[in-house]
Amino acid sequence: QYCLSAYFHMYGQQTGYLAFNIIQAGHKYTLKKYVGNHGNRWLHMRLSINSHAPTFQFEMEGHTGSGYHSDIAIDDLSVTHGHC
Hints:
The structure is a single chain. With 84 residues, this protein is mainly beta. The protein has no helices and 6 strands. The strands form 2 sheets. The chain has a 3-stranded antiparallel sheet with strand order 4-1-6, with no helix packed on it. A 3-stranded antiparallel sheet has the order 3-2-5, with no helix packed on it.
């Protein structure tokens, strides 16, 4: 059991997406995906991870939009043992 916690900021009319993934045993799984404009503010997300694999990786995948009105930022990322 792990808890992934982070603050994120997604602002702009052309904002793409931000995905939080886990990779285990050669397979990628999307835990949570945020799409589009979430306003000019920081949001807090927390995800509980249940992994039975002996090793795994976290991946953050961000895609900005097609223009300059598209910003994505991540801050204060932490991974701790236990549920969120």
